[in-house]
Amino acid sequence: MFRAFPVRYIKHTRTLATHAAPTSTRSGNSVTRHNWKKDEIQQIYDTPLLDLVFRAASVHRQHHDPTKIQLCTLMNIKTGGCSEDCSYCSQSSRYATPTKASRLVDIEPVLEAARKAKENGSTRFCMGAAWRDLAGRKRGFERILEMVREVRGMGMEVCTTLGMLSPEQARQLKEAGLTAYNHNLDTSREFYPQVITTRSYDDRLETISAVRDAGISVCSGGILGLGESDSDRVGLIYEVANMPEHPESFPVNALVPIPGTPLEGNDPVSVHILIRTIATARVAMPATIIRLAAGRNTLDETDQAMCFMAGANAVFTGEQMLTTPCSPWDEDKAMMGRWGLDGMRSFEQVGVAKKEAARLEQAEIRQTTKSANLIEPAL
Ligand code: SF4
């Protein structure tokens, strides 16, 4: 089934990989731009909320099937003990939180979790490890590459979040079959130093470039409720919407304050801000999948439906997020049924399908070259 991608995707991917990024492309009546000014995005963000939702819903319908929601399941494959100081995170070793550090899990429990996720309708499986980067983790990285190969072999989209990546590590992950890599910008460039000090905004952008250059789909979004202002939420969207390619996925998290972290006392973000941010991101990045991530379980069903109307079209579902609660599959399926929503198939998003087609083509070229080299000495 993995070889069934239409040839036109492969050709298009080659074009994308070799030309300079356009400042805009047209699809239907809506234009995809990469040259946004911050005040243009601010203007969209400041639109009266129901008008903004209506506009976002119209853009959404030009680029996506509005009845489809991508179901993803997340697994923490290495918990806690992280050297970074992200002030929202229970996995940082700098804070006294309820999260206990553990070693990288074995392959089999991961495959079991992925099988269960697939049986329950999830088409993307994401694995997260609490690390700054992969330096000095050669054997762990090899195990993760094997996890990627195996989960991809089940026909699922596979995503990892492993901290900072080098171009070579990104290349190896792509070759193993990685569909997407998550590396959030979290917030605006201006507010970022108040949230994290152990790695810079530019470090994050560098990892995102390495991922994109390796042909892996980028998943990069933010967290609301960190204490940021409206202009910081606009600043985050401005950063991702002006990337040479929009991230294929933009996760929107609502902070779940964790006891022991510096942000434990933060007020919850209002649903109006959540919806406004989703809708603005939808208008600025029409083809991106917008992912309702941490904190979704605190929203009631009507609020979630409003997020879907505003352009969100993916959720994490299953037993657990990395360290916070998740809505279970049966509840999500029942909710989706009530609102006329259905799960997305694997590789339904065109941008993600193109990148996978390019990977398969490369794998075939490598295989043909290897076979030719084997035959040659016998001639
Ligand atoms: S968010 Fe990631 S990098 Fe930051 S402390 Fe938590 S696990 Fe470490």
From TrEMBL:
Keywords: 2Fe-2S, 4Fe-4S, Biotin biosynthesis, Iron, Iron-sulfur, Metal-binding, S-adenosyl-L-methionine, Transferase. Its cofactor is [2Fe-2S] cluster; [4Fe-4S] cluster. PROSITE patterns: RADICAL_SAM. GO terms for molecular function: 2 iron, 2 sulfur cluster binding; 4 iron, 4 sulfur cluster binding; biotin synthase activity; metal ion binding. Residues 67-296 form the Radical SAM core domain. [4Fe-4S] cluster binds at C82, C86, C89. It is an enzyme of class 2 (transferase). [2Fe-2S] cluster binds at C126, C159, C219, R291. The keyword GTP-binding does not apply. Belongs to the radical SAM superfamily. Biotin synthase family. This is biotin synthase. It comes from Galerina marginata (strain CBS 339.88).
